[in-house]
Amino acid sequence: MSSRPTPPDGLVIVDKPSGFTSHDVVAKMRGIARTRRVGHAGTLDPMATGVLVLGVEKATKLLGHLALTEKEYLGTVRLGQNTLTDDAEGEITSSTDASKVTREAIDTGIAKLTGDIMQVPSKVSAIKINGVRSYKRAREGEEFDIPARPVRVSSFAVHDVRDAVAEDGTPVLDLVVSVVCSSGTYIRALARDLGADLGVGGHLTALRRTRVGPYKLDAAKTLDQLQQELTIMPIAEAAGAAFRRWEVDARRARLLLNGVRLDMPEEYADAGPVAVFGPENRLLALVEAHKGKAKSLAVFG
User: Fold this and answer.
1) Are residues 144 and 173 located together in one domain of the fold?
2) Is 3 contained in some domain?
3) Are 81 and 17 in a shared domain?
4) In 245-290, where does DSSP find H-type helix?
5) At 148, which CATH number?
6) What is the pLDDT of residue 143?
7) Which of 9, 15, 45, 193 is the catalytic position?
8) Would you say 210 and 101 are in contact if contact means Cβ atoms under 8 Å apart?
9) Of 115, 249, 253, 260, which is most buried by a Cβ count within 10 Å?
10) Which of 60, 58, 52 shows the shortest CA–CA distance to 24?
11) What is the CATH number for 279?
């Protein structure tokens, strides 16, 4: 019986379809890549589509660090209705005529939600409250509060404002928006908070993630395309695109792989995770500066 070839270590940039959880995509990729060693960086809600970064084999070690990078979205916010989930998947809890909301008021509300802000995640998010997922508590009808957390919204822009009528006959406004934000920012919470500020309620009706760190939608493949041809970004290329590079010679490469903490050059002192490359563009490790030394975050060897 011949053994299956091991897939190469690297990242797969998936264009996630609507209706799939991030875990569904991981399960599908395990079948396509024929390995259990697949993970994802940064969850996308089932309703959302777009860039989902998967790691295969050794590249799973990169994922926790990639999840912390900046993200970019295109979405539609409906003003005039609140829902249980702050998006179109939840039951509508209130409807208010939004036709009198002015563009000036919208822009003022958007400005309040731009920059460094404190945000309360949606109650149906995957955040853990005392060890239990928030969505699980919400499903069981539990009353609880989620503490606000600091997030950064670098850009929140409205590209179009459309008059619409909801299914229940309520006049609503649909805003086509783009958002650039830090990891941990909930776009549906931005929709909810904008609607609350304007006094009419709001929720997210569509969301497409167009970028995670350096990985953009134009590099993403659908699951059907990946089924036809598995496209894996080699781990060295993936790390080189996402993190600053530090090149070392063969002697220091050996020391690093033997567990020696190398002296970290001053230029990388505040760089966050740094990808260390040895001769022949070989990715050795992901490290960060700690008291002037290179502390290993993940070793690839």
Assistant:
1) yes
2) no
3) no
4) 250-257
5) 3.30.2350.10
6) 72
7) 45
8) no
9) 253
10) 52
11) 2.30.130.10
Spatial separation of the C-alpha atoms in residues 129 and 189, rounded to whole Å: 17
Residues whose CB falls within 8 Å of the CB of residue 131, separated by 6 or more in sequence, listed in order: none
Tokens read off for 42 = 């940064």
Active site residue 45: yes
CA dihedral 23, 29, 30, 36 (to 10 degrees): -70
Number of separate domains in the chain: 3
Name which of 68, 70, 37, 31 is nearest 235 in CA terms: 37
Strand runs (DSSP E) across 44-84, as ranges? 49-56, 71-79, 81-83
Residues 33, 53, single domain; the answer is yes
pLDDT one-digit tens code per residue, 260-294: 999 999 999 888 899 999 999 999 999 999 999 99
Q: Tell me the CB-side half-sphere exposure of residue 207, using CA atoms within 13 A.
A: 29
Is the pLDDT at 68 greater than 80? The verdict is no
Residues 200 and 84 in one domain: yes
Range of the domain at 270: 243-299
- Establish if 147 belongs to a structural domain: yes
pTM: 0.89
Instruction: Give the mean pLDDT of 69-76.
Output: 95
